[in-house]
Specification:
This protein is α/β, with parallel strands linked by helices and 618 residues long. 36% of the residues lie in helices and 15% in strands. It contains 21 helices and 19 strands. The longest helix is centred in the C-terminal third of the chain and has 26 residues.
Length: 618
Amino acid sequence: MINSFRRIASSSRTIIVRRNDTNKRWNNHLISNKYGKKIVNYYSTLPINNFHHQMKDSATFERFKLSTAFVNQFADRKPPFGFNGLGELVYRRTYARELENGRMEEWYQTVERVINGTFNMQKKYMLAKGLDYDIDEAEKLAERMYELVYEMKFLPPGRGLWAMGSPITEERGLYAALNNCAFVSTGDQITIEDDPTMPYTFLMDASMLGVGVGFDTHAAGKIDVYQPGKMKGDYEEHTEVFQVPDSREGWVESTRLLLQSYFVPNQKQIKFSYDLLRPAGTPIKGFGGVSSGYQVLAELHERLQNTLNPLIGQKLTVTSIVDLMNHIGKCVVSGNVRRTAEIAFGEPDSEEYIDLKDYEINPHRMEYGWTSNNSIFANLGMEYDNVCKRVVKNGEPGFAWLENMRDYGRMKDPPNYVDHRVMGGNPCLEQSLESFEMCCLVETFPARHENIDEYMETLKYAYLYAKVVTLGETHWERTNEVMSRNRRIGCSMSGIAQFVARNGLDELKTWCDKGYETVRGVDKELSKWMDVPESIKCTSIKPSGTVSLLAGATPGVHFPESRFYLRRIRIGHDSPLLKPLEEAGYNIEPAVDSPNDTVVVEIPVDADANLIAPANII
């Protein structure tokens, strides 16, 4: 898309672009280069960084918006929610946002918000970079993406359904919230001299945005723990009071200050005032849910101190690293306000690590050890007996072969070594990641397609969504540095068990091979179009959370235990969804772990008449 002539109209900041006659097709839509095509561009000499803030305040910027006439076509349609009502219940509980009129979104409105947010995000980026932006073409692409998402041919991740196009992205520019997963190495605690707390505060900050985070134990035995309040040349305690702001940033900063007082010498002792924090039960407007109250943060501060105080004058241990991360995780998910996940990685020869979830040896960890999956960095050809004894007893640790993660893209293909910087992975381990890296996963449903060509079209639009998410900068410089280089994406498949039952395993392999080829080709085109590097990895099979339930798809590659089963859904005790569920006769019981504020609803599910039970798979 080379411009042969450009005239800048300074009064309107509109660029009229004349192009050569080279035509280019993308997604069966013609991007015309002929004279007379309406092209709008905005010229900017500002740095590309912080494009959200550049364009947000620009008087010339007009947000992307699907036409009302187009969207209204879907207002009276019945959404294709799956699993005889379960999909709709999960949608209304988890992803429908409140509208300005006080009503909750319907599915067609949620899709509108997500598509508008996606194309607005792309528009901001391209205009801030001075790239050509074709309004008419964008509208065509957006309308087709809307149709595919509405029909649940593919779906953005749960983070995208909730955050994309909301004030989270449109007003605050918190694009990190659109990503599924992240990883951070505690080994960076050694190299980041100006802030050795970053691995822990990154995990907390990302977790509070709903991102699942992995971490390792590389800092064990390498980081000194100091006595807070003992100043150089003065043995009197020095104390500083920090008044915690009532915000995500405030909670994270309080944790940073506390950890810094232990990891950096000659620091004041930190005490906290929680007077500014809203009471428990107060609605959280931005991210939804209700406040868990100051007590949860105060408990975190106490637990962090109790973990580090016995180590003063010593080095951080494997157990203390995992405990610090787990305490943070427990704080984040407290009160069922936020959903996130953790995974810890340790060495296979560390008895201390592989016994972390043996609660006979570590009974004190039972209260918080559940907040992370624990895995070892397994070595090819290693002796597995010692680790497997723990697996038999506790179900963990799992196994992660870091060498394979670094050497391979698809395991069926020869090694390509492009991911040699990988340090770990995300909590479900479907994505390999560098330290401080994040990744966006997007879910496609092959069983909801009639033929392979139809599915290939869906893959192109699903990948477009994910590639646009990689354009969004986070509020962490190290993360932006890695993500701008890697543009890592996980274009995934769910409902695989249903597809195999209907079409057979050989047909699945055919769709996978052609789909991978298609995704790689689309990545090349989009990377050129948006002037970004090609993605280092493009695909994965995510285990899926609740997104696949919306579409009535079995999650990822999982086979259900039975065609018929009961699925239990947690709902707040004051949810307006409860009354119609009660009237419909569903079984509802208080949640065992939080009976005062949460109930559990039983939903009968018919997975698929054609499904093969695991016991019958040969």
